[in-house]
Structures are given as C-alpha cells and as structure tokens.
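Feature request, filed as a ticket because there's no other form

It would be nice if the structure record came with a short human-readable summary line next to the tokens. Right now we just get the raw output. Example of a typical job, pasted below so the devs can see what we mean:
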Amino acid sequence: MAGPLGGAAAGGAMSPRRSLRLLVVAALLAAAAVGLLRSSSSGPDTDPVRTVAGGLRCPACQGESVADSASPIAAAMRQSVAEQLAQGRSPAEIRRWFVERYGTDVLADPPARGVSLLLWAVPALALLAAGAAALRTLRPRRPEEAAGRAGPVARRRTPGSAAPPTPRGPTARRLWWVSSAGVTLLVVAVAVAAGQTGRPAPAAPPADPVAVTLQLARDLEGQQRYDAAAALYREALRDRPDDGIQLRLAFALLRADDAAGAERAVREVLARSPESPDGLLVLGLAQRRTRPAEAPSTLRRFLTLAPHHPAAAEIRRLLDS
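Raw output as currently delivered:
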C-alpha cells in the first residue's frame, strides 16, 4: 500500500502530455526571442562616425548610406558627423540635427509608424500572454482548490492521502492553444521581417540632392569652411546649372582667398546677365585683389544699379576710404 510519500511522488510526477506542452512553449518563446534579436540587432561596428553615418541616406546616391557613398556630399556629411561627435553630441542629437535641416528623407531608417510600430509592440505583449497562459494551464491545482470542485466523494478522502494535482479545465486549455498559435504566427512574422533585411528592398526616392547639397554648403560657410563649401557648390552646379548657385560659388571662393577663381566664376554670370548687382559686387571685390585699378569702376556701377542693396553702405565706405 502506498503511503504518504508514494502519493506525493505520484502527484508530483509530470505526465508526458504536460511535458510536451512545456517543451512547445519553451521552444516558441525561444524562437520569438531569437527572431526579435535578429531583426533589431545591428552589425558590430566600432567606428562611431561610421555607425551614425550608416543611419543617414546619401542624398546624391540611390540606395547608399552616407557611410558607404564616395560622393562629395557624403564626405561632407561624414565630416559634419565627426565634428559633432568630437563636440560631445550624441548620435540621436546628430540625427535630429540632420532631420531639422534636410527632412526625414535623410534617415536611412525613418521612425517606425503604423504597422511597423506594431511589429515591435505586439511581440512583447504576445510573449507575456503566452507565458501567462502556459503557467495557468500547466500549473497543477492546489489540493484545496481541486477538492472544492471535485464533489462530496472527493472531499471524503482520508486525511493521510495526498490529493493529486488535477489538470486545468477546457477553457484554460483553449486559451493555451490560442496563445501558442499566436506566438507561432508571431515567430513566423518576425522571421519574415528579419529575413527582409538581407533582401534588396525597393529603394525609396531620395531627397532632392541639389537642395541638400546647397543646405550643406551653407552650413559649411557658417563654419567658415569656404573651400569645402565651394566644392559642394560646384557639385550642385553639375546637377543644376543656375546663376544663383554660381554666385554662391563665387562668394565662397572670395572668402576662401581665391580671388582669381571668384572672378572667373562671376564673369560667367555677368556674361549672361551683365547688370546683375550681386555679380558686379563680387567682381568688384575680387578685382580689388586681381585688378585694383578696375575695382572702383565696377563697384560704382554696382551702386548705380542697386543703391539700396544690403552691402551698399559698406561699399560706399570702402570707396570713400
């Protein structure tokens, strides 16, 4: 006759069916966790500049990041990232700086919204629900709970006998199977989403490369890096010939102490628009270094055409000195 110890041993034994359920739940949870890690993990890149630049899209390229592109625009953006990191700014602050100037199109991975956001919110909730359902289904009932539901015959057990744990009811089993199916579908969805990272997705339309180039060139001028700004203005001119961009190039060359280059650039504008006030202004300032005898005549012509130009007062003082 089995004593109390034998009854307890029998009650503590786990049935093969229950063991199989535990293994299925553990496998599903592990697979979902692995899928999430695969889809969210990034490569082990130790270069902080490359890490930040890898999250920015090259405006002049198709499907290339700033880290991988060899274009002058990407080089200038990498330099800007390096300088901001040296100033102590965080990667998030640098990304926000680029977004404020060039829009969200500059990001290689725009912020998750809608369905993309659900892909990250649902897994945690589903895993918690599956774990709760598994615990509720597979945990044996307490003896007093089982006795309360078993009826008068079960309540008349001898005091020394151990009440074996009873399985949960059909509602809990249905909940367990529904949760297991949900986790299975979640694992499949995460695996598919993670697999998409290795496939060439359709390239999103890049931001206007000329607009981004001009903004970046102006930022470089604000940092007094006129040579780099001039290089970007030349890049913009190759894509979009424009007198306004040509004049910006001439101004940048003048500030970079390249008066001869500034004169050559502005003469191209004046050949098409002989009475351009800004063109005459840049030409007169450049001539003060290259052709000092001709500079006063050019600057007076500028004042005649644009007496209320923002630079007019300074040019009058320059001519009177």
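Something like this underneath would help us a lot:
The chain is about 70% helix and 0% strand.
Confidence is low (pLDDT under 50) at residues 1-11, 112-117, 197-204.
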